[in-house]
Give the backbone structure.
Amino acid sequence: MTIERFPVEATHILMFSRAVGDPNPAYGGATGAVERPADAVAVAPPTFVVAGAQFDPDNPLRPRLGEPWFGSGREPSGAAREGGGMLHAEQHFEYHAPLRAGMELTAARRDGQSWEKQSKRGGLLRFSEAITEYRDAQSGALIVTARMVGVKTERPVAQEERA
Amino acid sequence: MRGEREHVQVGDSRSMVVVESLTRTQIVMYAGASGDYNPLHTDEVYAVQVAGYPSVFAHGMLSMGATARLLTDWFGDEELVSYGVRFVNQVWPGDTLTASATVAAIRVEGDARYADLTVNTVNQDGKPVVSGTATARLGS
């Protein structure tokens, strides 16, 4: 995955902060008694960079016009998925510099380690790691490093065994 | 709650409710904002009939994002150095999540001080859903 242009926008930050249920006025919501100056720049919440998926032209988790979608429509599923879905096992962020509205990022992802583990309820669990570097598009400076661990299970499973 | 980070000590702990009776609508909001439209999270027909789950369930990142509120409310915006979690149990519609964080260590590096934290979020039954660590800058 490469994202060539991830504009960090105030409205996007506001929508994201509402979605995680955080009324912090620093995110632009100003729903409470604490008002921010009108010209204050919204800061990005700690997990905001994942919303860069909106700017990934190949995001497989976004329906596309004219292409089958694996979610329901007339039928419970519109397309078979290859090899079952990936569940999110771990997520780690390192913050190198502040991220605020008005900045523009690039994102480059590389594969990390992969390993397997046998689970009584989920069958064979296949873990894989991906590291994404989010950089300032202008300066190239590293802003956030994200490390994601995904797991593919043989069958649906409650997640308590995955640790 | 803000602005007390200069006085943080090892063992200090805070907790707060970060999700109250999770609605499917909030999960839809998260899908829309994040760009993760995986129907496991928003499409009950698909989640139940095709994927075999009892219902849709929240994105792990929704729980991690909700939990972050505790950290930024405590230590301030833009003071986190790192934040990482494991998703140990799924979060279902109707769940109420309580996040807690405890200062495990305070470190001095150069002219900056840092608090290393353990972070845990549990559901209404006390079952852990998010478990991890974070480091926050404390200033000099």
Observations:
- Chain B has a mean pLDDT of 95.
- Strands of chain B lie at 13-19, 80-87, 97-109, 112-122, 128-139.
- The longest helix of chain B spans residues 60-75.
- The helical segments of chain B are 24-34, 39-42, 44-50, 60-75.
